[in-house]
Amino acid sequence: MSVSRTIPMNQLRDSAPGMGQKLAGEIGQSDNEGVMTLIRFLVAEGENHVVRTHAFDALRALGRAGLDPTLTYLRSFNHFDNATQVYIAKGLIRLVGDIDATRAKPDLIEMIQRLIGVQEQGAAGRAWHFIQQIKMEIHAVLASLNCRTVLDDLMGLLGSGDELVFPVVIQSVGLIGDRRALRPLIRLHALEGDETWLATEIRKAFRKIIRRENVDKADLIRMSALTPSQRTSLDRLLVARKRNGRV
User: For residue range 139-167, what is the model confidence (pLDDT) as tens digits?
Assistant: First the structure.
């Protein structure tokens, strides 16, 4: 009897609480094909938020038992122009990072290199932007591991500071970025203007990097051609270090 018949995936359509964990208990007694059946069901019914919620609960409960099948799915993911499927893929990336980021690291590096290749081969429009979003999730996991293998791509996501970027990019840069990120962060802080939550994240990332790279204000002025507003932002970014007597 096949796994898909012995494990009733349609129970994921039931809005009752705990259905995902119940299903995980049944899948846990099967082999990897049970997890793959769950992932295929999630992908097929991804528009149903009840199914999505229960399926992710089940994968979370399965933990490492679900890791290899999930990575297998991500290796061949190619629904780059489908918002729902991209949303699911991003959730799966966060999930494998939470379960065992170290084990997932080689697959995530390989995936991001494949995505870069897809973009270089001509991905455009919404597909290109969705690929950017997927890469952001991967970078967040890799940065948490202090992995610099694809740091150049993360710097590309940060850009020059002329346009605001997603907070996850700024947070990842704070964890792993080098001094190349400092001028874009100064410019982003000036662009953001007010003391918003995003400005706080920019400041946190900036200070992590200058501590890690041992950069002082004179270095920053030498490496950056700053406008008056950006120079004001630099002063504000450094204010806490001034209070500590380090600048």
Answer: 999 999 999 999 999 999 999 999 999 99
